[in-house]
């Protein structure tokens, strides 16, 4: 059936159309109204909000890391500096074929798997125009090699960056410590704003202790950036304040001399000026090259250092704790005098051993001394005399007196890793071993054995106190700071501690003269090896501390004992005796006899300091 | 003097009439295009190459406008079904042989130039629907509405699956506008509205992932500040920081420092708003409104149903362009690829738009000829 086709009513259709257009015009007007309202809201009502956002978009705050303060020795020799380290960088967007480039680069510079791995890791998360470091510290040879071939490597550049460098290398590793990349623990500790733009931080030693001063004050600059983060221009700039330059009391020449003297041994030498506590040399052997740590030490090298039998990373001067052995005797002798237990005149007839009443155990001497007074007891190092002294004094009075010299406490030197040693007391024994103090332990404490432990620095400090007849000063490495426009040196004041006071001043002579006799009297323990031909007077004391406990009837036979069971050789001393300018403590691990090994080392160092260096 | 000036004006009018051009519409278009060039110069980073290329496109588009203005619209009406049919066939061809660009299959490579059939449908669909209604009594009956609906739905579906949501939206809009102008009854419209709303979840189901993401980021652009929300956030910053007076031509930091993505194409409005402020924006909207109203005036004065419906639809499709683009740039609507008409860099939609204006001018001009 055909559909009925109604007629079109043109007039009505036109009216209908017009009505629809009017409706749509209203809708259009309405929607334009909405658009305008929204735009008004964005551009007028929220203007300041979006204006700020736009400003934040465009302006970026960049940190200007401060140059780290330099470190000098007392004569102005540079110990730690900032020098350009040339690093190889690749800008990804300029490289056509990364794999090919890396492959060809490996023929020009020494690239290890480690470098490429790290490079790939850093490549992610970087924008294509940002250079990514490939190798951090190019050698001069690599630098030259690359320079010649540079045209073959578009997008590869050598960038000079400032990196910490220790020109003295291993000589000062234990003193200065080193800087290294800021790790997560440090990140939590530091004010990250102050370290904006800084990648390294003092890890150990002076670098760590004076981190605050060495670091300086970060600067900032406002730069305009585009959406890719490319810097277009600098808008505002607040320069960084460089870190403070420090001058140490150390003398590199003496340090080097001490290092040479100790070469081949494991041990430590600390030399200080007894008058003001300035540390002149502080050597711990073996050592390591601190520069290794600045650019990130390869794992294998670090493992080797860490597991080395002689522990090169261990700072013996501050962290090594050794029984002081007979070097303690002058102090114990002084305690005896002060407590009226002995006098300089008293003579004791000794056998080769000592026994306590009601005890069959024999406390052996290292040799038979016969009749000894305090002078011979110190100069010839009679153990029996001091066993007797200790027994009569008792551990309480002895500990208290030794404590006056700072034993069992940190000296408070301006470095890191210092240990406090161990000054045993009755209470300590009770607290740590839950045992009473046995009288026999007093005897061996009196000759610096048993529980007693000291650090080389403590021994040097004790030696200074002896040299200065009780005057105590805190040992320190910092001599002063370079300050002000003209770069004048401001000397750091020495910090004097409560002195050791004895009731009669001659007590000092009664232990110090025997120390001179140790060196200069034919029967002194260091006469043949160190004191005999000295051009100046030395006061010293040798020590040989047991590592291996011998049974009471056993003889110590060096040849039959493994090296690591050999005695430690020790020596403390100062010179010139009448006007002390240098106090030295020497410890040679497993060196054997203090008189034979440690004393000549100290003598050499003193010779160098007093005779050669001054001239 | 007065006499000769009047004569000159008269001569100018005669020339325009001879060329079948409408002065107000042409003036509005030229003003918009000129302003577009000014903004494009800034948005492109003072890239004369881009301006040059755009100039060539504008010249070409003007050619198309002139050409269509010369064709009496009763010819267009006769051709309408064929134009539509060819268009649908091309869309199907695109589906199988089209080139892929930006994740969508939209282009047909014709050797000499690339051609986007979906663009063609922006004209073909309203032409076809207007043709369908032209001889039938209006308002249309339900059966006719359904036929018209199918006429719109086929190309819209073909385009949407490419996927090109923006063009599909404009094509559908153009077709639906014809239906609305034809006088669809309100109760039918209401019923369809309810139906559309209930179909929304279904639509959601068929949307591509990126399209859903766009809708979601519209609701909360900050949820993905570096991804999909980046466009809207940066665009709002650009517009908002323009303030009342703008940062000045070539001084928009958001656009000059390249924070604003797509700044010479879809987001050119943000560049304009940043540099010329709210005052400049209101001027621009007024210009657009003028062009739209002029087009509607032509439609209202048109003498037959086909011309009326087509002119009305084309004018309002132009409005949809403006509204969807600015709505998207200021964060009112989801990011769909609709350019700002006569402003955005690019030739495809420009040619279509100018063709539509050509048709409008033809309708305007040939009405008079018929009246004589």
Write up what this structure looks like:
- The complex is a heterodimer of chains A (615) and B (372).
- The longest helix of chain A has 36 residues, at 10-45.
- Chain A has 3 domains: 59-77 and 168-244, Penicillin-binding protein 2a (Domain 2) (Alpha-Beta Complex); 85-161, Ribosomal Protein L30, Chain: A (2-Layer Sandwich), CATH 3.30.1390; 252-612, Beta-lactamase (3-Layer(aba) Sandwich).
- In chain A, a hairpin with a 5-residue loop joins strand 2 (71-72) and strand 3.
- The mean pLDDT of chain A is 89.
- Helix content of chain A is 37%, strand content 19%.
- With 372 residues, chain B is mainly α.
- Chain B folds into 2 domains: 24-70 and 225-372, no CATH class; 81-184.
- In chain B, strands 1-2-3 form a 3-stranded antiparallel β-sheet, covered by helices on one side.
- In chain B, helix 2 (23-43) packs antiparallel against helix 12, helix 6 (142-160) runs antiparallel to helix 7 and helix 13 (305-329) runs antiparallel to helix 14.
- At the A-B interface, helix 1 and helix 2 of A face helix 7, helix 10, helix 12 and helix 13 of B.
- Chain A: It holds the Pfam family Transpeptidase.
Mean pLDDT of chain B: 86
Low-confidence spans of chain B: pLDDT under 50, at least 5 residues? none
Which CATH architecture of the largest domain in chain A? Answer: 3-Layer(aba) Sandwich
CATH superfamily of the largest domain in chain A: DD-peptidase/beta-lactamase superfamily
Please give the largest β-sheet of chain A. 7 strands, mixed
The coarse silhouette of chain A is: elongated
Approximate strand percentage of chain A:
15-25%
């Amino acid at each position: 059936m055909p559909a009925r086709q109604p007629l079109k009513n043109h007039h009505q259709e036109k009216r209908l159309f017009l009505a629809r257009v009017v409706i749509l015009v209203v809708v259009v007007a309405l929607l334009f109204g909405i658009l305008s309202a929204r735009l008004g809201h964005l551009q007028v009502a929220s203007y300041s909000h979006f204006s700020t956002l736009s400003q934040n978009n465009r302006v970026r705050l960049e940190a200007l890391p401060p140059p780290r303060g330099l470190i000098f020795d007392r004569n102005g020799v540079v110990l730690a500096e900032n020098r350009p380290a040339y690093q190889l960088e690749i800008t990804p967007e300029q490289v056509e074929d990364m794999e090919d480039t890396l492959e060809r680069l490996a023929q020009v510079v020494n690239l290890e798997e480690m470098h490429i791995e790290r490079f790939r890791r850093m490549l992610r998360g970087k924008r294509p125009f940002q250079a990514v470091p490939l190798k951090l510290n190019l050698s001069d040879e690599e630098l030259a090699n690359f320079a010649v071939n540079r045209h073959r490597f578009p997008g590869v550049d050598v960038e000079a960056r400032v990196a910490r460098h220790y020109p003295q290398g291993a000589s000062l590793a234990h003193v200065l410590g080193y800087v290294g990349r800021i790790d997560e623990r440090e990140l939590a500790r530091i004010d990250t704003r102050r370290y904006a733009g800084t990648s390294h931080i003092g890890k150990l030693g002076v670098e760590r202790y004076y981190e605050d001063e060495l670091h300086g004050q970060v600067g900032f600059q406002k730069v305009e950036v585009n959406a890719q983060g490319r810097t277009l221009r600098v808008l505002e700039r607040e320069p960084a304040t460089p870190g403070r330059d420090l001058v140490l009391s150390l003398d590199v020449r003496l340090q080097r001399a001490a290092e040479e003297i100790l070469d081949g041994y494991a041990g430590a030498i600390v030399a200080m000026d007894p008058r003001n506590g300035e540390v002149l040399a502080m050597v711990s052997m073996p050592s390591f090259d601190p520069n290794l740590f600045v650019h990130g030490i390869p794992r294998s090298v670090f493992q080797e250092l860490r597991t080395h039998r002689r522990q090169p990373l261990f700072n013996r001067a501050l962290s090594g704790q050794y029984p002081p052995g007979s070097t303690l005797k002058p102090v114990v002798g002084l305690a005896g005098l002060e407590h009226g237990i002995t006098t300089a005149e008293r003579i004791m007839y000794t056998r080769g051993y000592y026994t306590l009443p009601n005890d069959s155990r024999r406390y052996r001497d290292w040799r038979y001394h016969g009749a000894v007074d305090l002078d011979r007891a110190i100069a010839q190092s009679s153990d029996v005399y001091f066993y007797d002294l200790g027994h009569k004094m008792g551990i309480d009075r002895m500990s208290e007196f030794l404590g006056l010299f700072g034993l069992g406490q940190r000296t408070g030197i301006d470095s890191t890793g210092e240990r406090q040693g161990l000054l045993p007391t009755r209470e300590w024994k009770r607290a740590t071993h839950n045992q009473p103090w046995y009288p026999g332990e007093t005897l061996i404490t009196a000759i610096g054995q048993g529980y007693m432990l000291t650090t080389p620095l403590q021994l040097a400090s004790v030696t200074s106190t002896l040299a200065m007849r009780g005057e105590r000063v805190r040992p320190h490495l910092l001599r002063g700071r370079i300050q002000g426009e003209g770069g004048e040196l401001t000397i750091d004041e020495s910090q004097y501690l409560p002195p050791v006071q004895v009731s009669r001043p001659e007590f000092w002579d009664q232990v110090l003269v025997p120390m001179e006799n140790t060196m200069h009297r034919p029967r002194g323990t260091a006469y043949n090896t160190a004191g005999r031909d000295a051009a100046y007077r030395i006061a010293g004391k040798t020590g040989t501390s047991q590592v291996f406990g011998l049974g009471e009837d056993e003889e110590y036979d060096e040849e039959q004992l493994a090296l690591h069971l050999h005695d430690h050789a020790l020596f403390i001393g100062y010179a010139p005796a009448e006007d002390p300018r240098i106090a030295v403590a020497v410890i040679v691990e497993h060196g054997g006899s203090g008189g034979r090994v440690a004393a000549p080392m100290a003598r050499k160092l003193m010779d160098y300091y007093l005779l050669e260096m001054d001239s | 003097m007065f006499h000769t000036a009047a004569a000159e004006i008269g001569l100018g009018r005669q020339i325009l009439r001879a060329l079948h051009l409408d002065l107000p519409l042409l003036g509005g278009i030229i003003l918009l295009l000129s302003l577009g060039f000014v903004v494009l110069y800034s948005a492109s980073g003072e890239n004369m190459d881009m301006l040059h290329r755009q100039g060539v496109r504008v010249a070409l588009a003007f050619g198309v406008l002139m050409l269509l203005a010369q064709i009496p619209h009763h010819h267009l009406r006769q051709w309408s079904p064929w134009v539509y049919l060819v268009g649908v066939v091309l869309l199907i061809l695109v589906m199988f042989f089209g080139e892929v660009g930006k994740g969508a299959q939209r282009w047909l490579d014709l050797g000499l130039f690339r051609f986007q059939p979906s663009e063609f449908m922006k004209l073909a669909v309203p032409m076809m629907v207007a043709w369908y209604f032209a001889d039938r009594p209006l308002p249309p009956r339900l059966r006719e509405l359904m036929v018209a609906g199918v006429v719109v739905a086929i190309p819209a579906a073909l385009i949407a699956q490419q996927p090109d949501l923006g063009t599909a939206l404009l094509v559908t809009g153009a077709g639906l506008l014809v239906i609305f102008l034809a006088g669809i009854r309100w109760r039918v419209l209401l019923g369809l509205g309810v139906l559309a709303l209930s179909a929304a979840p279904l639509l959601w189901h068929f949307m591509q992932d990126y399209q859903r993401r766009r809708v979601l980021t519209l609701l909360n652009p900050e949820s993905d500040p570096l991804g999909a929300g980046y466009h809207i956030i940066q665009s709002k910053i650009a517009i908002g920081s323009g303030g009342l007076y703008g940062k000045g031509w070539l001084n928009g930091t958001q656009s000059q420092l390249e924070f604003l993505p797509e700044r010479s194409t879809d987001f050119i409005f943000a560049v304009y708003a940043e540099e010329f402020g709210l005052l400049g924006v209101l001027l621009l909207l007024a210009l657009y409104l003028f062009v739209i109203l002029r087009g509607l005036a032509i439609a209202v004065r048109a003498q037959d149903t086909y011309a009326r419906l087509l002119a009305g639809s084309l004018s309002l499709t132009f409005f949809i362009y403006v509204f969807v683009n600015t709505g998207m740039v200021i964060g009112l609507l989801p990011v769909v690829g609709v350019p700002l008409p006569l402003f955005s860099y690019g030739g495809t939609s420009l040619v279509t738009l100018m063709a539509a204006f050509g048709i409008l001018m033809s309708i305007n001009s040939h009405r008079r000829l018929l009246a004589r």
